[in-house]
Amino acid sequence: MWWIALIAGMASYIDAAAMTSSGTALVLLKDTLALTPEMIGVLSSALTFTVAIGALFGGRLGDLFGRKVVFLATMAMIAVGSLLLVFVEVFPGLLAGMILVGLGAGADLPVSLATIAEMAKAGLRGSMIGFSHFLWKIGSMVALGIATVVGDWGQLGAQILFGHIAVITLLTLLGRISVPESARWRAERLAEKAEATSRSDAALGWSTLKTLLKPPFVTYFLALAAFYTLMNLGSNTVGQYGAYMYTEVADSTVQVYSTVKLITMFLGAILVLVFMKVVATRWRMTWFAAGAACTVVAMCVPLVFGPQVWTLHIMMFLWLVGTVFAGEGIMKIWTQESFPTLLRSSAQGAIIAIARFGSAGLALVTPVVLANGPRALFGLLAGACLVAVVLAFVVFSRQRTTAIDEEEAQEVGPEPVAVPDARLGR
């Protein structure tokens, strides 16, 4: 079971490694391949937007055609794209590589998470989904560590960064061949096809995306989309423009920023292990509330005292602690729990897509805002965090049973039974 969690969760590792590596690699290729600032902007944007597009369509394809066929195809796409980035030396080839990596990584995320949720035992599900977030942290750390070593190697350094992604992707592809199709997806799909035989069309009823916007799923879908989008504004800003804040706003150096980021990322990986321990207990929402408070305070510190080196240090530390317990990790778990099998991957993909599009939109204007009024940006992010965590707490603290609990209960006997919710102490 943990092998499946590892081999499916490598989607998160590859996503993080690709995002972290691309920025450094494009800078290293700038002089060698005569890339203009406009070209670098197009390549970076292509990766961000195609991850969102891939998540939207990949999640749906995973619900329609199965988990295994999609997550094998996505790994093949990423492998081809990363190899293009290693060996191609012209802009169109680099753009094609970025698009393939982005589409593949985005499409793989919701399908791999659904695979883990459906194959895990109930008592381990939260921990195993949380493990994918641990792998995300490790992917970022490894890519940043490689970038630190090869940061002045020019084109060779960029090839090593992209080559690391290619090697990991190919190994993951080989490992996934042995992973079986989700038995729960297969059973639900067969049952729905049987039900559809009485209709004159080939539509498969409730498994359409429109169902996400109808009761009983609409509340969870809108709450999760809003929560993750608003929280991801802060995460994307800290990740993409952290060095810019330190150097251009706080008059510090890249070295200071890199050191702080490495320390916080290492601490984050340790805290994710704590998250994996508590997420399936009755204390889940208590830890969420504590993390939520940290995220709001994190953005308030530079808002109140101004963006200085020490306030940015505090911001990064508190943001790291807060988002471990009230960020992407808990969003993934809530999503897997809140939707039935034939909607699970679609819902996850749509939520990721909405959030990535929102972050990409803010990223377009972030440098201008930081240059003209950085406190306005931190005020916006603090307000977004507050709305996000309050909304999520209100919705999910009231959740008594989950869709996946109900499916498991129906598998046990002919009559659905109430399943105790361990994290609520029931």
TrEMBL record:
UniProt keyword terms in alphabetical order: Membrane, Transmembrane, Transmembrane helix
UniProt-listed Pfam families: MFS_1 (PF07690)
Signal peptide per UniProt: none
Domain Major facilitator superfamily (MFS) profile: 1-400
PROSITE patterns registered for this protein in UniProt: MFS (PS50850)
Membrane topology: Multi-pass membrane protein
Region annotation (Disordered) ranges: 407-426
Annotated transmembrane regions: 40-57, 69-88, 94-117, 129-150, 156-179, 217-234, 254-275, 287-305, 311-330, 350-370, 376-396
Localisation per UniProt entry: Cell membrane
Domain of life: Bacteria
Protein name, per record: MFS transporter
